Hints:
A: mainly beta, Sulfite Oxidase, Chain A, domain 2, 5-stranded mixed sheet, 8% helix, globular, B: alpha/beta, Elongation Factor Tu (Ef-tu), domain 3, Rossmann fold, 2 domains, 5-stranded parallel sheet, 5 helices, 11 strands, binds flavin-adenine dinucleotide, Molybdopterin-binding protein (chain A)
Amino acid sequence: MNVTRGFTGRARVDNPGLPPGQYDAGDDWPVLSAEVTPDLSPADWTFRIDGLVREPRTWGWDEAHTLPESAYEGDIHCVTSWSKFGVRFGGVSLDAFLDAVGVHASATHAVAYAHTGYTTNLPLADLTGGRAWIAWEYDGKPLAAEHGGPARLLVPHLYFWKSAKWIAGLSLLDHDEPGFWEQNGYHERGNPWEEQRYSGD
Amino acid sequence: MTETTASPVFVPPTRFAVPGRIAVSNRTAAVWQTATLTEIRRETPHAATFRFAVPAWAGHLPGQHLMLRLTAGDGYTAQRHYSLASAPDDEGHVELTLDHVEGGEVSGWFHTRARPGDRVEVRGPLSGFFAWPGDRPALLIGAGSGVVPLMSMVRHRRARALDVPLRLLVSARGPEELIYAREYGAETTPVFTRRGPAGAPVGRLGAAHLRPVFEELPAGGWEAYVCGSNAFAEHASRLLVAAGQPVDRIRIERFG
Ligand SMILES: Cc1cc2nc3c(=O)[nH]c(=O)nc-3n(C[C@H](O)[C@H](O)[C@H](O)COP(=O)(O)OP(=O)(O)OC[C@H]3O[C@@H](n4cnc5c(N)ncnc54)[C@H](O)[C@@H]3O)c2cc1C
């Protein structure tokens, strides 16, 4: 251990919800996207699933809203070290979209892509079983553009760069294919509890 | 058989911003190294530059950042990202410039406790998308400590005597808060938002600041780099789009 002389740090909080190396950002919700926030209205928003599926499909805003509502209440964790507790997102479980297209047995991974062209890769297992959403509400209100509105992917058990803002689609693959940050040295899975920040962690 | 592969065929309505500029070494990013503080230089009442010896530093490109970690006696750690302020060199030194954030855990330690000889840990360099190798004409826009990665670009261009066009628009509340004030040359236009030197205009970065830069558009256009708080990044990137800068040539580093 390399102790830093004179550094004591903040009062220790015994918070079992805080993954290693993270701190509680409180009411702050930092924005860290690398691109210009797009001017995307709900009417222009679409969400597509293609690749290794029986029936590729594209949903518009209204169509997507006919699927059963589902909410996430819990915590989110950003690789830049902040975590945010007790957030509330509303939208639709990704399972509902995946059921509609019929996932091929050979699919193992997905590339999520945004309306800006941003991409991120995920194991399919992280997107199914009630652990991922397409979210369009935050705290009961429409999701703000800088946070990914009209709709973003939400995969709260992984670092938040996996939760692609301005989500446009998923391509299902039989192999892993690094996305934007993953090509820039970030970890292929990004599990905050294992502190998988950078490739090789 | 149904569909086989599977690369995204989607064409975004807005073209993609920020394709990565350089490949990042995954090996150097994974290793924590000891960085020994060798010098502290005051820049403004709220910002200071910290110079470190990192003997095995793998080198970096202007615009990249590192992760820095402080460890307390009981094993508690705090880690934050900091942009590299220094131009790449082969001397095994890097410089960071930190704002003193009120109540800040890491910047507070640097501004109140740190002294030469202290050791911290760093890993990096990280992230290739904001890097500027010195190849394309660069339009740099920063506010506050957001000027740090941009200064690395200005210094790199000078150190290598590159003749590729480069412009820096840097926003600060007043002259005494302008980081690196003594180092700027003809490439830089300071924008003062609250107080200016006698006779100088005071106000927010606006379309009028960008107009002359776009009137002298270099061959192939500008590669734009924007850095600062999220609010500043949103404002500056909107101005750039309005001035005709393609969105896929605007790279944004938000300090969160
Ligand atoms: C890519 C990148 C590059 C960056 N480059 C630079 C740079 O070159 N220079 C620079 O100065 N900064 C830079 N930053 C910002 C830097 O990473 C830190 O966020 C900044 O230094 C503040 O950290 P801190 O530990 O001092 O403050 P923190 O302790 O994180 O506090 C930040 C604010 O939140 C409040 N706060 C947070 N947690 C608590 C808590 N538990 N209780 C009470 N209050 C709390 C603090 O009071 C303070 O107002 C960069 C950020 C990124 C993402």
